[in-house]
Amino acid sequence: MKISVYIATSLDGFIARSNGNLDWLAGSSSDVAETPVSNTSDSSSSGAPEDYGFWEFFNSIDTMVMGRGTFEFVASTGQWVYEGKRVIVLSSTMSSHDVPSNLVGKVEILSMEPADLAEKLADEGAEHVYVDGGITIQRFLHAGLIDELTLTRAPVLLGTGIPLFGELDADVHLRHVETKSFESGFLQSTYVVER
Amino acid sequence: MKISVYIATSLDGFIARSNGNLDWLAGSSSDVAETPVSNTSDSSSSGAPEDYGFWEFFNSIDTMVMGRGTFEFVASTGQWVYEGKRVIVLSSTMSSHDVPSNLVGKVEILSMEPADLAEKLADEGAEHVYVDGGITIQRFLHAGLIDELTLTRAPVLLGTGIPLFGELDADVHLRHVETKSFESGFLQSTYVVER
After folding, report:
1. DSSP for A127-182, written as a single string
2. Which of B9, B151, B157 to mutate to test the interface with A (most CBs of A within 10 A)?
């Protein structure tokens, strides 16, 4: 089982402004969480919005893990793009009563340590897990559970916001796999975590 | 006059460990400050250590501005690689008495706002200024005085340390110029600050 992160950040490492705003990603407030980096001003020759490889990545995963903050943000957008995926909300403060009625049956609320969740998901047949949201990503990184990171960097400094990375018990060494440069100035790098 | 930053960071945005240590850059403690990113394990075909374009950049500048922290680190190495450049130490707490005897006459200690220093340097004929050190870079970015940033990212997460970027009054928009990928996994991106 592989566990991946796929997320956009500002050049100074923030995944959102302090209030959760993602306007700096696309000049639009209609983005779904920080996942589809849909900078529509950078269309491909077909006229389709640039998705920065998001849907190809998304089609490769079977399970999504997010924290309460990301879930509430996604729920607030009124869009649910995770149809067909197993979606876990990892939270010690949420119960099934906190799930909006239109999303009942679409998500599982679990409260456990990342290592225990990873073991459970592997046991239950997950092959590719997508971990999303600042705190949840930090918890999985801290526990040494992330296999691959795809970071899409927007060419902007925000100065403050919600950081992607947090404290670690030890250095995490990465192997750079590839970097793609987009006309929008976005830069997407994929790293594999070295064990 | 152009003002540039050329600096290496970890993937999580630190220019040094909290104690100033740069071991994560090259597996060696002999690096001079954070400037020459001399990862000697990644030699070019000529057998010379990879300098990540540092000396080409360095040869293009005439003036160097650093803060007290970077100056004291550089002075402690016993090496002085800035021969032939005008070197300003921007500090409100240092006096000429704090300059080690071997460096007297090689540096000017000035205490002023970045904008005033930039005006002074331009008046005195500087053409390309290299601003170095975390706090000094932050002060110049905050004052809107940086024209170009070359960031070399090491493929490692440190979790904690001295951050490159700090708070800003407003977003700083950048234009991505180019990115170079090195076999060591280091990734070097150049950005121009948009006004």
Report:
1. -EEEEESHHHHHHHHHTT---EEEEEEESEE-SSSEES----SS-EEEEEEEEEE-
2. B157
* 3-class SS of residue B150: strand
Q: Hey, are the CB atoms on B191 and A11 less than 8 Å from each other?
A: yes
User: How far lies B134's CA from each of B7, B16, B54, B148, in Å?
Assistant: 9, 9, 18, 15
- Give the global pTM: 0.89
Alpha-helix runs per DSSP H in chain B = 23-26, 54-59, 68-77, 114-123, 134-142
- Output phi, psi for B151, to 5 deg: -110, 125
**Is the CB of residue A174 less than 8 Å away from at least one CB of chain B?**
yes
B141 has a chain A CB within 8 A of its CB? yes
pLDDT digits (tens, 9 = 90+) for A136-185: 999 999 999 999 999 999 999 999 999 999 999 999 999 999 999 999 99
Which residues share a beta bridge with A162? A16
Residue A174: strand pairing partners: A193
Interface membership of A191 toward B (CB under 8 Å): yes
Tokens standing for residue A111? 């409260």
ipTM for the predicted complex? 0.88
Mean pLDDT of chain B: 90
Residue B179 β-bridge partners: B189
Measured between CA atoms, the residue of chain B closest to residue A158 is: B171
Distance CA A155, CA A18 (A): 18
Collect all residues of chain B within an 8 Å Cβ-Cβ radius of residue A173. 155-156
